[in-house]
Amino acid sequence: SSGINAEWLLRPGDKLQRQLLESEQRAEEATTDKVKLEEELSRAKDKISQLRETRDTLRSTNDNMTVDMKKVSEKLENEISELHSKYLAQSRELSEAEKMGQSADNMRGLVERLTIENEELARQNTQLSLHTAEFESMSEKLKN
Q: What is d(CA 78, CA 84) in angstroms, rounded to the nearest whole number?
């Protein structure tokens, strides 16, 4: 190749034959590229489907978790309400018990005071009986 373009040396039929071969080769390459692109497109579609399924699953899971959380929240609210009611009832019972305890203490104090007063009255009664006996004894001596 001494600077002469090889294409000028080919016969017109050879030139057409070569162009046809090149054309066929490009067509084959284009077909191969098309197949590769179709495969990539198919993989991309599969991936999109998988991602959509994952998204839908996550949405469903999220919805279920939201429903579950609402149920748990309602259950906790109910338990808190019940416990608060029990607490209030026990507070009232405790208050009543304290009042009853105070009443019992007051009654014990009253019983102790009445017992002491009763003992004092019994002692005074005994003294009075002794004085009465002495008085009667003196009265008898005076009569005689």
A: 10
